[in-house]
C-alpha cells in the first residue's frame, strides 16, 4: 500500500480552515486506499502526546520550541522539523513526502527528501506573506515579507511537484517563472459525508435570538468565520443600516471571533441597526450547523486585496453545501467559486451600498431561492466534493514514482 506522509504547520485536534482541509484530504485519501499519516511542526501549539490520533487520523509531533531572533528562530524551526521528519521516515518508510504551506514545512521536507531520495510534493494553500499583511501582522514592504516570498519561491522551484488550491495562486507562480505543467490545482472542497446534511431550523434558538417578528421568521443574513479585517465584516455591519430601511425585519447573525471582534462590536452598538445584529462569539465546531440552519443568506464581503484576489475561501462552499444563498464581494477568490446570478450574488467590494443592494435583491426575489440553492449545491457536488477531488492526487503521486511503479491501493479504493 502506497504511503503518504503529510507535513503540516498544525492539525487536529486544533480547529481551523487549515486543519479541516487536512482532515478532508487525509480522510479521502484513506478511502481511496492510500496509507497516510501527518507530521506537524513546532507551531502546533495544542498540548498532547508525541503521537496522537484525532478523528481517526494519526499525527506525529515535532517536539520542543525553536528560539532566537527572527530569522534564526525560523531556521532552527526548519532544522527541528526536518529531524522529526527524518526520524519518522526511517521508521515508517513513506513513499512520498507531501508538504503543505507555509514554506517552513516545505523547506524542512526538502532537506529530508534530498537526503533520503524521496519525491516531494509541495502544496500551497495561501501565500503566508500575503496572509500576514491581510491580518495586520506584516506589511508588503517589509523585509520579512520579501524573505518569506523568496523562501516560498525556492521551495516551489525545488519541489518535484506543486499543488495549489486555486487558479489565482497557480497563475502567480507561473508569473514567477515556474513551468505550468509542474503545478496542479486541487481546489478547496467540502466533505459532503460530514457537512452535506443541513440541520432543520431550531425554532427555540431562533426565538431566543429574536429572529421572529409577529409570529413569523425573520430573514437572517449570516457570517460564520474569523473576524479579520480583510473579511469585511465592518462593511456588512454598515450594510445592515441600509438594508433594514427596506427590510425592517432583517437580522444579522455573526458567529466567530478574532482580532477585530471588539471594534466590530463597538461599531454595531453605534449603528442604527444595532437591534438587528447578534454576536454569538466562537462556538464548538460540532455546533456550527445549528447556526447555519438559522440563516437564509450567508454573506462574505471580503475586501479587495492581493490575498483575497488570489485565494479561494472555504466558507462559501460550506454555505452552498448547506443549501444557503450566498452573497459575496466580487474579488478573484470568490469569482473562482461562484457564478453571479446562478450559484450566488456578487457585489462590488469595499462598498456597504453594494453589499446592501445585493442582500436586498436576494430578499426581494424569493421565487428564485429554490433554484439558486439547488445550483449552489450541484456546484459543490460536481466540482468541490472531496470524495471526488482527492482522486486528482493519484495522478500527481503516480508521476513521481520510479518508472514502472504503480500506486498501490487497498480494498477501499
Automatic annotation (TrEMBL):
- Domain (Glycosyl transferase family): give its ranges: 219-378
UniProt-listed CDD domains: GT4_WbuB-like
**UniProt cross-references to InterPro entries, sorted A to Z:** Glyco_trans_1, Glyco_trans_4-like_N, Glycosyltransferase_grp1, PEP-CTERM/XrtA_GlycosylTrfase
Q: Where does the Glycosyltransferase subfamily 4-like N-terminal domain lie?
A: 17-189
Listed name of the protein? Glycosyltransferase, exosortase A system-associated
Organism equals: Novosphingobium album (ex Liu et al. 2023)
Amino acid at each position: 500500500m502506497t504511503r503518504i506522509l503529510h507535513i503540516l504547520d498544525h492539525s487536529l485536534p486544533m480547529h481551523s480552515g487549515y486543519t479541516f482541509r487536512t482532515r478532508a484530504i487525509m480522510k479521502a485519501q484513506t478511502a481511496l486506499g492510500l496509507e497516510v499519516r501527518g507530521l506537524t511542526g513546532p507551531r502546533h501549539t495544542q498540548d498532547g502526546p508525541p503521537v496522537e490520533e484525532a478523528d481517526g487520523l494519526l499525527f506525529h509531533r515535532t517536539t520542543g520550541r525553536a528560539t532566537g531572533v527572527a530569522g534564526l528562530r525560523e531556521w532552527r524551526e526548519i532544522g527541528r522539523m526536518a529531524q522529526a521528519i527524518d526520524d519518522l521516515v526511517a521508521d515508517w518508510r513513506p513513499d512520498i513526502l507531501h508538504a503543505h504551506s507555509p514554506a517552513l514545512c516545505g523547506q524542512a521536507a526538502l532537506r529530508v527528501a534530498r537526503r533520503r531520495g524521496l519525491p516531494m510534493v509541495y502544496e500551497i494553500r495561501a501565500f503566508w506573506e500575503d496572509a500576514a499583511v491581510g491580518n495586520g501582522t506584516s506589511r508588503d514592504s517589509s523585509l520579512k515579507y520579501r524573505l518569506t516570498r523568496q523562501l516560498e519561491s525556492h521551495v516551489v522551484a525545488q519541489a518535484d511537484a506543486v499543488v495549489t488550491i486555486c487558479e489565482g495562486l497557480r497563475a502567480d507562480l507561473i508569473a514567477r517563472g515556474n513551468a505550468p505543467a509542474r503545478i496542479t490545482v486541487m481546489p478547496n472542497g467540502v466533505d459532503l459525508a460530514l457537512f452535506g446534511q443541513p440541520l432543520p431550523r431550531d425554532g427555540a434558538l431562533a426565538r431566543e435570538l429574536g429572529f421572529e417578528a409577529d409570529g413569523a421568521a425573520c430573514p437572517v443574513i449570516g457570517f460564520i468565520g474569523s473576524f479579520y479585517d480583510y473579511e469585511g465584516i465592518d462593511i456588512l455591519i454598515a450594510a445592515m443600516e441600509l438594508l433594514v430601511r427596506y427590510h425592517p425585519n432583517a437580522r444579522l447573525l455573526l458567529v466567530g471571533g478574532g482580532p477585530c471582534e471588539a471594534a466590530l462590536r463597538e461599531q454595531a452598538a453605534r449603528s442604527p441597526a444595532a437591534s438587528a445584529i447578534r454576536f454569538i462569539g466562537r462556538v464548538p465546531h460540532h455546533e456550527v450547523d445549528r447556526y447555519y440552519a438559522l440563516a437564509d443568506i450567508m454573506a462574505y464581503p471580503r475586501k479587495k486585496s492581493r490575498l483575497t484576489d488570489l485565494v479561494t475561501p472555504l466558507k462559501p462552499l460550506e454555505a452552498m453545501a448547506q443549501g444557503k444563498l450566498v452573497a459575496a464581494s466580487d474579488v478573484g477568490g470568490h469569482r473562482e467559486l461562484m457564478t453571479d446570478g446562478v450559484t450566488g450574488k456578487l457585489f462590488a467590494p469595499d462598498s456597504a451600498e453594494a453589499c446592501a443592494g445585493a442582500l436586498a435583491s436576494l430578499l426581494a426575489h424569493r421565487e428564485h431561492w429554490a433554484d439558486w440553492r439547488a445550483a449552489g449545491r450541484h456546484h459543490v457536488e460536481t466540482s468541490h466534493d472531496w470524495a471526488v477531488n482527492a482522486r486528482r492526487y493519484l495522478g500527481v503521486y503516480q508521476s513521481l514514482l520510479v518508472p514502472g511503479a504503480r500506486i498501490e491501493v487497498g480494498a477501499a479504493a
